[in-house]
């Protein structure tokens, strides 16, 4: 049962091959047996899951037939879940049980999805390796001495190891696409504003976006269809109808114009990854696509701009964790200042503190113009690069990451080396456009991802191209040994 995709599960449940309760019990058994090797879950909500599964079975027995009715999933632990620990993998949220569900959680539950628990991540989604979690690092099921990517590393490891068929993630600078690439999955970061951020604990509010991580583009289409849509509770959520992503999958690719940015194939890219990416391009040509060389000239400024804007927003967002309102409070504070200082000093990890300091500095009087404002101007240039590129091509294609999964600890003491892993993904967040990573083969037994980028609200096109590629390739069907 654990090998099935969401689409296959939907058919099996409709054909009564097994019940949602049986399926959830089987996967909970796998989580108990196998997750100690991976550490992908922070919380397993067994009782709640079985209750939701029985409710899904009852709805089906009463004649309902939604594709996600009874589908097991799990949520990254920064989506608020009512009455369940929502930790952001931080000590500072110790014991915090959210008083309400995030809109994404609510929408997926309404569609009948069964949540098996909450997934490990980098603390406050800051990281590319899932090593900054207060709950310990997550291991990559393809090689447990390696990182699964981050920050949605728990989501990626759990789906890759077939503990769950799909999960939610969030992507501020690549945190859905990069872990998907490093674990042989399909992951989609939607257009900024496509999916509600209500109840999604903020890291960098102008960049954060929730999305699906699954094995296939078809499953991402199923999940995105349920997650997306206008939400009056999020003022940045766009009031635009949700496309029929399943219908988009089957469009032929004849005439599709693909752009290959020269900046995506330069120094720093592992040449074996470049080979895999170009092999995908050849397959897409056979399906009728045409290819054009393009340029995104301001891409080289993306990492410096991101590492000013994201920490600036984080320093502001994380000021709410003060030892008074949520989670952790230090022992016996002597006065209010001591309470703030020690609660935050003891509650936040090193990477989070680094970013709060960088961000506070960048926003301080006298430096705001030199750093924050400058970074915002670069952001506009990057957006303009994409707008110009999309006047010539329908889709941009390149590698998702410069390297395959690295060893645990390898970059842990070198934040800049880790930041450089985001080089291909963060431009999409700065511009707000949608991006998808899909499996493209292996290098030394480690998965490699190809990234597709599309104009605003063209998630359907990304899913279409990925699905068509998955009809003529089988990388996405490969499972890590031992799982
Ligand atoms: N690795 C990037 C960072 O640490 C992106 C993280 C994310 O997308 N949440 O900021």
TrEMBL record:
<keyword id="KW-0067">ATP-binding</keyword>
<keyword id="KW-0648">Protein biosynthesis</keyword>
<dbReference type="InterPro" id="IPR036928">
    <property type="entry name" value="AS_sf"/>
</dbReference>
<feature type="domain" description="Amidase">
    <location>
        <begin position="23"/>
        <end position="463"/>
    </location>
</feature>
<feature type="active site" description="Charge relay system">
    <location>
        <position position="151"/>
    </location>
</feature>
<dbReference type="GO" id="GO:0005524">
    <property type="term" value="F:ATP binding"/>
</dbReference>
<protein>
    <recommendedName>
        <fullName>Glutamyl-tRNA(Gln) amidotransferase subunit A</fullName>
        <ecNumber>6.3.5.7</ecNumber>
    </recommendedName>
</protein>
<keyword id="KW-0808">Transferase</keyword>
<dbReference type="GO" id="GO:0016740">
    <property type="term" value="F:transferase activity"/>
</dbReference>
<dbReference type="Pfam" id="PF01425">
    <property type="entry name" value="Amidase"/>
</dbReference>
<dbReference type="InterPro" id="IPR020556">
    <property type="entry name" value="Amidase_CS"/>
</dbReference>
<comment type="subunit">
    <text>Heterotrimer of A, B and C subunits.</text>
</comment>
<feature type="active site" description="Charge relay system">
    <location>
        <position position="76"/>
    </location>
</feature>
<comment type="function">
    <text>Allows the formation of correctly charged Gln-tRNA(Gln) through the transamidation of misacylated Glu-tRNA(Gln) in organisms which lack glutaminyl-tRNA synthetase. The reaction takes place in the presence of glutamine and ATP through an activated gamma-phospho-Glu-tRNA(Gln).</text>
</comment>
<dbReference type="GO" id="GO:0050567">
    <property type="term" value="F:glutaminyl-tRNA synthase (glutamine-hydrolyzing) activity"/>
</dbReference>
<dbReference type="InterPro" id="IPR000120">
    <property type="entry name" value="Amidase"/>
</dbReference>
<dbReference type="InterPro" id="IPR004412">
    <property type="entry name" value="GatA"/>
</dbReference>
<dbReference type="GO" id="GO:0006412">
    <property type="term" value="P:translation"/>
</dbReference>
<keyword id="KW-0436">Ligase</keyword>
<dbReference type="GO" id="GO:0030956">
    <property type="term" value="C:glutamyl-tRNA(Gln) amidotransferase complex"/>
</dbReference>
<feature type="active site" description="Acyl-ester intermediate">
    <location>
        <position position="175"/>
    </location>
</feature>
<comment type="similarity">
    <text>Belongs to the amidase family. GatA subfamily.</text>
</comment>
<dbReference type="InterPro" id="IPR023631">
    <property type="entry name" value="Amidase_dom"/>
</dbReference>
<keyword id="KW-0547">Nucleotide-binding</keyword>
